Amino acid sequence: MDEKRNYSKIIVLLLSLLSSFLLMLTCLFQWSLMDIVTPFLMPFVWLCVFCIFLTTLIVSLGFLVKRKSWKPFLIHMISILLYFFFPFTQLMINLDFAVNREERQEVLQLIESEKISPNVSYNNSIIHLPEKYQHLSKGGGDILIEDNGQEVFFFTFRGILDNFSGFIYSSYDQEPQNEDFGGDYKEVKRIDKNWYWVSSY
Questions:
Q1: 9-19 burial, b for 16+ CB within 10 Å, e for fewer?
Q2: Cα–Cα dist 166/172, whole Å
Q3: What is the pTM of this model?
Q4: Residue pair 115/129 in contact by the 8 Å Cβ criterion
Q5: Could you tell me which residues come within 8 angstroms of residue 49 by beta carbon, excluding any fewer than 6 positions away?
Q6: How far apart are CA 180 and CA 185, in angstroms?
């Protein structure tokens, strides 16, 4: 009997760890996931993740009440606090900028030397990047340019209509205005000299 109880505790503990880990991973990589599954399907991904987490939370609460096993419930509480208070999005923005900065600088040099230029027939402000650099701009590997390449926009999220976010390079080091790249920006953050992160949703 005791062996069966211990086995049940281990199972619930593992399920709590796995569901919490799944929630944290989804928080960390939600924008990359959205780029893969599209904004239309992402709510269903979140629904699945929350259902799994909520189910294991209820089970862990039952174990806390009936068997005084507090570890699974504690794992869930820590995960909930992290979900609401840890800056997952800011962490991933900073990581994206740091990891891809050199390659984005290479793209800027290619634009400056006119080795790449607008190449999309329906819009003379869009450059579809060479395959080597397409990972630098989400939603298809396109970047936007204005003022003859003095301002360049790399997408971190390319949603529907005016819902998008990304890094703006400004050779003037001036904070982007709402008329830049057609954005109605809700957030503008200076990342580094000449670089800003903006969000229009």
A1: eeebbebbbeb
A2: 18
A3: 0.86
A4: no
A5: 22, 23, 26
A6: 9
| DSSP, res 160 | S
What type of residue is 62? G
**Euclidean distance between CA atoms 95 and 88, whole angstroms:** 11
Fill in the amino acid letter for 58: I
Distances (CA, A) of 30 to 2, 39, 102, 188: 41, 10, 24, 20
At position 152, the amino acid (one-letter code) is: V
The first and second tokens of residue 138, run together, are: 């989400």
As a whole number of angstroms, the distance between CA 46 and CA 51 comes to 8
- Strand ranges of the sheet holding 126-128, from the earlier edge strand across to the other edge: 126-128, 142-146, 151-158, 164-170, 195-199, 187-192
Helix (H, G, I), strand (E, B) or coil at 92: helix
Share of the chain above pLDDT 70, in %: 96
For the segment 8-28, what is each residue's pLDDT rounded down to a tens digit? 888 999 999 999 999 999 999
